[in-house]
């Protein structure tokens, strides 16, 4: 049993690393110490306080300082005698989750922590997470978060209850070049069908030499491409539960046709993050799909000649969501106080400070309505996608599926060696074997 648990844990760690969207962010963490305790909180403690131990990771020194300032502000202003003691540990390629699991199983874990959804099944199977639904029912801030976010949390736990608290997300959207749209006479698509038509119209021979100079879409056929691909499957009404359905197969056929008919670069079968971004910035492609992690570099490279729109709806609608959440552990003795802290991060001042400071997308509708987010077209596209964003199924097979099965199988289909039906049958069988 112990071997099976550890095997599943290693799969979770690999899955987190493999399915995370590349941000293109050049910042790296210089805060590599094993544990940093927020000593600034010590002077706020007194015998009447409830102390909550909170474990988190920070991607760089700026984020570390920001989290410490959020903790300090909460401790000074919550007015309920709650003192959060922040314990920072490195992400370490996903080993954060492994270390958190070992600590929780050993009885020495924190009261609450920052989180990735891919870890949820393992912790749920060992009864380590507190059910947040009773607290959410009494919380007056519940409706400040889109209902779909709670549904995604339920999906990850495999129950009808919420065990994971939304915090901040990265939602995939479509980048486009306004200058190319203008040259092609194309308006921003509002439906899936219009999107496919825009891809065709934006594929152009601009100098009349009989060769394509601009491709309508930057397809990601290499690793990580399963996330934007999922929008095509759902656009035709398909889903991940049954990849062999007629609608799912039709979405796959759309994907194949874009390649077969020359609407995407010929290198699309192996293109990954670096390639789709470089092709878009060079003007080789009119559209591509990513998230706010690359928006600063886009603006730096292209100025006003870059904008975004949410992936539009067809018979269905879906876009991939990168996630960071929080949880309370079942072992926490003061769950009400811990929940107070989690809500501060989700919809309170902590939400505003963190998302403005890191550039991540807030889940709070109140925070989303602020000028900082409404004046940013990439944030607006991300916010619009929250109502239909989702994740891939979290299964024992998902790690291998995203790292090798998906790119190899879809690559064969794009090359004409598998039909859409054959491709989807293989993807279904390998994901749910």
UniProtKB/TrEMBL annotation:
Region (Disordered): 23-47
Biased amino acid composition, Low complexity: 28-41
Coiled coil residues, start to end: none
Keyword Transferase: no
CDD domains: PBP2_TMBP_like
Keywords: Signal
PANTHER family, A to Z: ARABINOSE-BINDING PROTEIN-RELATED (PTHR43649), DIACETYLCHITOBIOSE BINDING PROTEIN DASA (PTHR43649:SF12)
Protein's recorded name: Sugar ABC transporter substrate-binding protein
Provenance organism: Candidatus Galacturonatibacter soehngenii
């Amino acid at each position: 049993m112990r071997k099976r648990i550890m095997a599943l844990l290693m799969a979770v760690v690999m899955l987190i690393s493999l399915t995370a969207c590349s941000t293109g962010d050049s910042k790296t963490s210089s805060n590599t110490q094993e544990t940093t305790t927020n000593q600034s909180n010590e002077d706020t403690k007194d015998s009447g306080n409830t102390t909550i131990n909170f474990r988190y990771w920070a991607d760089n020194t700026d984020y570390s300082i920001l989290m410490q300032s959020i903790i300090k502000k909460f401790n000074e202003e919550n007015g309920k005698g709650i003192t959060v003691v922040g314990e920072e540990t490195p992400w370490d390629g996903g080993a954060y989750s492994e270390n958190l699991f070992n600590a929780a199983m050993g009885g020495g874990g924190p009261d609450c922590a920052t989180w990735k959804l891919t870890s949820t099944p393992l912790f749920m199977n060992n009864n380590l997470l507190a059910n947040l639904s009773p607290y959410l029912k009494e919380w007056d801030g519940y409706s400040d978060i889109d209902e779909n976010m709670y549904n995604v949390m339920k999906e990850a736990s495999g129950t009808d209850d919420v065990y994971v608290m939304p915090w901040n997300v990265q939602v995939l959207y479509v980048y486009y070049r306004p200058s190319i749209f203008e040259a092609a006479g194309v308006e921003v698509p509002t439906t899936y069908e219009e999107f496919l038509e825009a891809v065709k119209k934006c594929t152009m021979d601009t100098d009349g030499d009989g060769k394509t100079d601009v491709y309508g879409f930057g397809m990601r056929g290499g690793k990580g491409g399963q996330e934007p691909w999922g929008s095509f499957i759902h656009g035709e009404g398909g889903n991940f539960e049954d990849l062999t359905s007629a609608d799912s197969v039709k979405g796959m056929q759309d994907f194949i046709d874009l390649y077969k008919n020359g609407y995407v670069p010929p290198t699309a079968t192996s293109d990954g993050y670096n390639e789709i971004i470089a092709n878009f910035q060079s003007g080789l492609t009119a559209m591509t799909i990513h998230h706010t992690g690359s928006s600063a570099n886009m603006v730096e490279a292209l100025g006003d000649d870059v904008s975004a729109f949410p992936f539009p709806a067809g018979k269905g609608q879906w876009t991939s969501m990168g996630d960071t959440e929080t949880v309370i552990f079942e072992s926490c003795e003061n769950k009400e106080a811990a929940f107070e802290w989690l809500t501060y991060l989700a919809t309170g001042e902590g939400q505003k400070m963190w998302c403005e400071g890191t550039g991540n997308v807030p889940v709070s509708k109140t925070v989303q309505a602020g000028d900082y987010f409404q004046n940013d077209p990439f944030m607006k596209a991300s916010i619009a996608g929250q109502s239909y964003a989702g994740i891939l199924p979290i299964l024992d097979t998902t790690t291998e599926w995203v790292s090798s099965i998906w790119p190899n199988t879809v690559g064969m289909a794009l090359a004409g060696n598998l039909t859409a039906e054959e491709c989807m049958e293989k993807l279904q069988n390998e994901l749910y074997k």
